[in-house]
From TrEMBL:
This protein's name: carbonic anhydrase
Reaction(s) the record says it catalyses: hydrogencarbonate + H(+) = CO2 + H2O
Note on cofactor: Binds 1 zinc ion per subunit.
GO molecular function list: carbonate dehydratase activity; zinc ion binding
InterPro entries: Carbonic_anhydrase, Carbonic_anhydrase_sf
Listed EC numbers: 4.2.1.1
Matches recorded under SMART domains: Pro_CA
Length: 167
């Protein structure tokens, strides 16, 4: 493994020298939780005018509201100052451009010989439909406040625009 992480560890040495975030509180200063995709084209703070300390960022493949997302939101709401939630998938997401989980399983099996069928990837070719259902999962979760504001929106990776689709 020697060398594989040298670039990021060296960069961190520079970061530490000019570190300015000491003393930030763990409570989300602007009360926001953002559920978005792991896609490396997404810069979640800058796109919404946020800075470190402002928001809880939850990321996974496809920006899906999974059981783990809900678990994290419950903690974020009751312990970490979150009082509003945005669910934000994006244009060009692989998780919404395949026909279903089978296609992903088949692709990985063909390329690497690995059988991933024990995993649920939560792909959905109906991205907007999935977003509406995910937003409803949060709105109707029995442990989350019924009046918690939840917005579903799409992030355009070509323009940077966030377009609300469910609010
Ligand atoms: Zn994605």
């Amino acid at each position: 493994m020697s060398g594989v992480f040298d670039d990021v560890l060296a960069a961190n040495e520079d970061y530490v020298r000019t570190f300015t975030l000491a003393g930030l509180q763990p409570v989300a200063a602007r009360g926001l939780a953002l559920v978005t995709c792991m896609d490396s084209r997404i810069e979640p703070l800058e796109m919404l005018g946020l800075k470190p300390g402002d928001a809880k960022i939850l990321r996974n493949a496809g920006a899906r509201v999974t059981d783990d997302t809900l678990r994290t939101l419950v903690l974020a709401v009751y312990l970490l100052g979150v009082n509003r939630v945005i669910v934000l998938p994006h244009t060009g997401c692989k998780m919404a451009s395949v026909s279903g989980d089978e296609e992903v399983h088949d692709t990985i099996a063909a390329r690497y010989g690995v059988d991933t069928r024990s995993l649920e990837f939560h792909t959905d070719s109906d991205q907007i439909g999935a977003l509406h259902r995910d937003v409803e999962r949060i709105r109707h979760h029995p442990l989350l406040p019924p009046d918690l504001p939840v917005m579903g929106a799409i992030y355009d990776v070509d323009t940077g625009r966030v377009t609300p689709v469910d609010m």
